[in-house]
Amino acid sequence: MPRQLLKRLVPDPQALRQRWFLRPFGARLADPQLWTLHRRGVTYAFGAGLAICFIPLPVHMVTAGTVAILFRLNIPVVVATTFLVNPLTVWPAYYGAYRLGAALLGEPRHPFHFVLSWNWLLTGLTPLWRPLLLGCFVCATVGGFCGWLALELLWRHQVLTRYQARRHPGMP
Predict the structure, then answer these.
(1) Which of 43, 46, 87, 124 could disulfide-pair with 120, CB 3.0 to 4.6 Å?
(2) Local confidence band at 87 (pLDDT 50, 70, 90 cut-offs)
(3) Which pLDDT does position 28 carry in this prediction?
């Protein structure tokens, strides 16, 4: 069921090659490894997508596409996974990363009130950037690894369960 749903939702690779902004990738986008649902491509893509979520800049899609093409990971999975940190979850995710980074550095937590201005970026962000970057790095590393491992174990368990069901059809 999920495989059929994904096949309907994922755009055709040939149609994507026609888009002007994807032409620089050329024939690399037609690589079947980037679009098929096999264990290695999907599990690594899920882990990479979780790690990319914690980049504190708005470059998730570009980074996800580049990583998927370079390492031949499943493009739809890595791109979809980056949406786990979205406008609804961005504040708790990055605030948690900031608190983790502050705890690891032994720095006191600085209260801050975000104001969208150049002055706030120059003065208000100064005490926050080191703990935020360290926390994001740790969350990306641990989250990516744990996500990959959890999906890998789940995938293997499902394959083993299906194999046993085929081998012993009458057994529960």
Answers:
(1) 124
(2) confident
(3) 73
Q: Give 84's DSSP letter.
A: G
Q: Which of helix, strand or coil describes residue 69?
A: helix
The amino acid occupying position 114 is F
Environment class of residue 43 by beta-carbon count within 10 Å: exposed (0-12), middle (13-18) or buried (19+)?
buried
In 3D, which of 47, 51, 55 has the Cα closest to residue 74?
47
Question: What's residue 73's pLDDT?
Answer: 93
Question: Are 50 and 81 within 8 A, CB to CB?
Answer: yes
pLDDT digits (tens, 9 = 90+) for 28-62: 777 777 878 888 999 999 999 999 999 988 889 88
From residue 91, alpha-carbon distances to 88, 98, 108, 169 in Å are 7, 10, 19, 49
Residues 50/144, Cβ–Cβ less than 8 Å = yes
Q: What is the DSSP letter of 160?
A: H
Q: For tokens 């031949």, what's the residue?
A: 72
Sketch the domain layout of the chain as residue ranges: 2-167
**DSSP letter string, 9-64:** HSPPHHHHHTSGGGGGGGGGGG-GGGTS--HHHHHHHHHHHHHHHT-SSS-HHHHH
